[in-house]
């Protein structure tokens, strides 16, 4: 999901509490077949709006979840163990 969002791709995901806390409006969520259909319809009919919402997360993903940031966190954890 993070990689796709970093590319500006609109995301449709099954409902996930933790993910929704991080991205409350940037991802379209569904909990049923009907909600999934509504998400698809929203993307098809309002692609530019959905893409703009997804793109809102660019800087946040880069600051918090980029490969570099995550690798630095892992190195830090390893160094703390030493």
Features:
82 residues; mainly alpha; two-stranded parallel sheet; 68% helix
How far is the first residue's CA from the last residue's CA? 33 Å
Q: What is the general shape?
A: elongated
Uncertain runs = none
Continuous helix count: 6
Mean pLDDT: 91
Order of helices and strands: HEHEHHHH
Secondary structure: number of strands: 2
Strand content: 5-15%
Largest sheet geometry: 2 strands, parallel
Structural class: mainly alpha
Q: How large, in whole angstroms, is the Cα Rg? A: 16 Å
> What order do the strands of the largest sheet run in, or round the barrel if closed?
1-2
Helix fraction? 55-70%
Question: How would you portray this structure in words?
Answer:
α2 links the parallel β1 and β2 (27-30). By secondary structure, the protein is mostly helical. The termini are far apart. It has six helices and two strands. Strands 1-2 form a two-stranded parallel ribbon. 68% of the residues lie in helices and 10% in strands. The chain has helices at 2-6, 17-22, 33-45, 47-55, 58-65, 67-81, and strands at 11-14, 27-30. The protein is elongated and about 50 Å long.
Provide a short characterization of the protein structure:
The protein is mainly alpha-helical and 82 residues long. The protein contains six helices and two strands.
